[in-house]
Amino acid sequence: MGEGIRDKSVSGIKWSAIESYANQGIQFILGLIMARLLLPSDYGLIGMVAIFFAVAQTFVDSGFGEALIRKLDRSEADYSTVFYFNILVSIVCYAVLYLFAPFIATFFDEPILRDLVRVVGLTVIINSFKVVQVARFTIDVNFKAIAKATVASNLISGVIGITLAYYGVGVWALVCQNVLSCILNVMILWYISKWHPQLIFSWESFKDLFNYGSKILGAGLLHTLYVNVNTLCIGKYYTPSDLGYYTRGCQFPQLLGQNFTGVVQRVTFPILAKIQNDDKRLIEIYRKYIRLMSLILIFALILLATLGKPLIILLLGSKWMEAVIFLQIFSLAMLTDHVTQLNLNLLKVKGRSDLLLKLEIIKKTISLVILFASIPFGVVAICFSKVIYSQIATYINTYYTGKLFGLTYWEQLKDYGPYFLYSVFACFPAYFMTYCHQFGNLMILLIGAVCSIIIYILILRTRKDRIYFEFIEPLILKLTKRYVNL
Fold first, then answer.
1. CB-based burial of residue 72 (10 Å sphere; 0-12 exposed, 13-18 middle, 19+ buried)?
2. CA 18 to CA 238: how far, in whole Å?
3. Residue 352 DSSP symbol
4. Taking Cα atoms as reference points, which of 217, 208, 271, 224 lies closest to residue 69?
5. Of 329, 276, 268, 354, which Cα lies nearest the Cα of 63?
6. pLDDT tens per residue across span 2-45
7. Confidence of residue 241 (pLDDT cuts 50, 70, 90)
8. Whole-number Å distance between alpha carbons of 320 and 244
9. Which helix (H) or strand (E) holds 8?
10. Exposure pattern of 370-396 as b/e (b: 16+ CB <10 Å)?
């Protein structure tokens, strides 16, 4: 990996991680407080309608953001065209949500959902005003600006949300927090970016970007439906409390895994797009990304699943105990999610959004079959269906990578498979600690995590892992030196 690309990768990942984890971290910490003030059913109500907002938001972007990032000769006409198109689509999406709100409330047999959908739906229009700003910052690998906007907006809105929850407004505390966060985020991004649209709408630009973006839109819609269809089914066939336990349990591995994968995916896309015509270098760098992510993420998810019970009890309280099993299963389901997503990044970089869409149609058809087969067996079975699907998706996603670059599933398994074995072995101390009932939950977490981390590092050093010595150990030494000099 060249020095220039390495420096951009490190800087981009650092600030993208700050943005993503600050966003989720602040929401998570504030959510811990709100979880003690609100009921599982309050979170369940939000979970019921999440799919509708997620689909609407996917339409708003329409793949144009990624089309802008990939295009090397982008112009002001491109930016302004995307800006106006996004706003138009967002207004249409909100109008649909507003009109269908009563039917959504009837579907779930929850009258409050009518007003809830109409208020939260405003975020669809609000978010459309930041698509171009985010794309411009991403092109420049300037995730620092995005991080500033995210941290500030979530801190302010989170404090207000907690205040409202304290005064007993229930689910509306979550609604107000969400809407206010979007408004503040857009305002700050506009202030930092200094970019403003011109009075330009180019049909030529629109057709060019839509040719690529439409396939991304189709694939994005399928993925969004897949991610949210579980909550739709649980909300329909089970209780709001069941959905509340499910969403809170899944939130922990999502905070850790999904955000980390999203961070690297966002950073690698503009970097790899710049070398899209050099296949040899593209694959060399891609494989390093896979190994680096696997080294960190697989261990972290297995450790999270191992220490899930004391973590839930300590942070949320015993009333959320039923969320533990969902945390553990979802952690396992996300073990290879980074491999899946980075394979898709390669197709995007090469401009093969047509293959991306084809893969998504195949995978999501399979996922629906597995999901509907699991519904009669309960919420745990629905969650476990994700574990089965994730392994199928990983195998399918490597098909075209193998065809285009000769990088087959088995070749990639050699890159990430060893880290799974190392992690399982290293997490045995944490597993045994969960049976030491004489210790408190905090001590179990601390001792179990520290012992497992030390063993994992010793394994990596013993195996002379190149990625560890190239990326992780220099970072540890740097942080240690900085701490000693304080």
1. exposed
2. 36
3. -
4. 271
5. 354
6. 445 555 555 555 555 555 555 666 666 766 666 666 666 666 66
7. confident
8. 9
9. helix 3-37
10. bbeebbeeebeebbbbbbbbbeebbbb
